[in-house]
Amino acid sequence: MEYTRLGSTGLHVSQLSLGTWRFGRETGGVVETDREEAHELLDAAWEQGINFIDTADRYGNPHGTAEQFIGEWLADYDREDFVIASKVYFPFNGRDPDRGPGPNDSGLGRKHIRAQIEGTLDRLGTDYLDIYYLHRWEDDTPIEETLATLHDLVREGKVHYLGASTMAAWKLTKALWTSDVEGYEPISVTQPLFHAGYRDDIKEYLDVCIDQDLAVCPYSPLAGGFLTGKYERVDEDDPTAFEGPEGSRGDIYDSFEDYYLSERGWHVLDEIRAIADELDATPAQVALRWLIEQDRFTCVPIVGARTVDQLAENAGAVDISLTDDQFDRVVDARYAEDGQRWGHRQ
Ligand SMILES: NC(=O)c1ccc[n+]([C@@H]2O[C@H](COP(=O)([O-])OP(=O)(O)OC[C@H]3O[C@@H](n4cnc5c(N)ncnc54)[C@H](OP(=O)(O)O)[C@@H]3O)[C@@H](O)[C@H]2O)c1
Predict the structure, then answer these.
(1) Active site residues
(2) CA distances in angstroms from 243 to 30, 220, 250, 257, listed in the order given
(3) Which of 178, 86, 98, 92 is nearest to 133 (CA)?
(4) Considering 58, 97, 290, 346, which has the largest number of Cβ atoms within 10 A of its Cβ?
(5) Would you state the pLDDT for residue 204?
(6) Is pLDDT at 30 greater than 90 in this prediction?
(7) Domain range summary for the chain, segments of one domain joined by +
């Protein structure tokens, strides 16, 4: 595993990050990744050389369970070996699951952020976070209040770097501009939805990241598993009609096809499958490698493997490389329907 400097920060991270969204999450009364499975995945990630763990206060049921699983595991390791990111914004029921979130248990106001950072650090069993993300943008709280609070957390040593997840490009720009004007710690790491099959709404966001030298840590880099090639199309006229393995995300999540399946997605997957054959690799590895090899910005995909075998396959992405032609064929497949272009290798 190679280690990459994360954009303009002084942090060095593995080429892949481990996502923990499914740790402690319940669907249909079934825990998707329980404590033991979570700890096996964390062990396997560490053995693969992955030092970058992505979580959020919101993950798990009740919220906070994912951070708790990680903290219990981390107690047997040296905290300094890991780069740990968490997030704040969404309603949090972890204070009292029976009562649910109160009026100040969500958003980006000072009270909520202050409460959440203490809870997050406590559950993770650490004195500091490497990266603290705004999970989303909040319209009700002035961005000055949010950034002033985060700036103080950095000064207090509770947070090292600031991040932003999904938000409009102009809002990300507004946050950067506000930090600049007010002298606050800037956002230096981003976490958008970005995978080979997805390009809507992301071009302008990535243009901001390129211009401002922000690191990009894409979430759902395999389109929730779609780009592994384990789903088959069953209707030529309907891109949302598919078959997939029992128990897979496509099988258990009602909204899977609306999120991840599109004409463009199938087209990109065809190209990724062809490149995988040429490289004797798997589609998942090619899809991840295409992200790692972005050459205009630092790109560290957050893999959401559910099993140790999936993680091992995905980690194989660091051992292959794409030719310029293979890289650009994925770009061309993204734009096949309208002939536009963005992101050919430079
Ligand atoms: N900032 C945000 O708003 C946000 C949103 C979403 C996620 N995230 C972060 O990003 C992480 C990754 O997101 P994601 O889980 O959507 O990522 P993903 O990599 O696109 O999808 C992961 C899922 O695909 C399937 N899969 C993965 N590798 C596979 C393989 N080799 N073979 C077959 N199936 C495979 C597994 O589901 P099945 O086996 O169940 O099919 C797995 O849970 C999350 O854990 C979280 O940390 C952040």
Answers:
(1) 59
(2) 22, 20, 8, 11
(3) 86
(4) 290
(5) 94
(6) no
(7) 3-191
Find out whether the peptide bond into 62 is cis, omega within 30 degrees of 0. yes
Contact 334, 268 (CB under 8 A): yes
When comparing pLDDT for 71 and 342, which is higher? 71
Across residues 193-211, what is the average pLDDT?
93
Band (pLDDT 50/70/90 cuts) for residue 338 is: confident
3-state helix, strand, coil in the chain (%, to 5): 40, 15, 45
List of residues 6+ apart from 171 with CB closer than 8 A: 137
Relative to the CA of 219, which ligand 1 atom is closest?
10
Evaluate whether 70 touches 101 at the Cβ level (below 8 Å).
Answer: no
Residue nearest to atom 29 of ligand 1 (CA): 310
Chain centroid, CA 331 distance in Å? 21
Query: What are 80-124's pLDDT values in tens digits?
Result: 999 999 999 999 999 889 998 999 999 999 999 999 999 999 999
Atom 31 (ligand 1) nearest CA: 310
| Domain 3-191 in CATH 3.20.20.100 | yes
Q: Is the CB of 222 under 6 A from ligand 1?
A: yes
For the ranges 35-39, 195-199, 228-232, which has the lowest average pLDDT?
Answer: 195-199
Predicted TM-score of the model (pTM): 0.96
- Work out the end-to-end distance of the chain between its first and last CA atoms, rounded to an integer number of angstroms: 25
Hey, which of 303, 307, 309, 314 would you mutate to test ligand 1's pocket, going by the most ligand atoms within 8 Å of its Cβ? 303
CA 215 to ligand 1 center in whole angstroms: 20
CB-count burial class (<10 Å; 0-12, 13-18, 19+) for 179: buried
- For the chain, give the mean pLDDT: 95
Q: What is the DSSP string of 153-193?
A: HHHTTSEEEEEE-S--HHHHHHHHHHHHHHTPPPEEEE--B
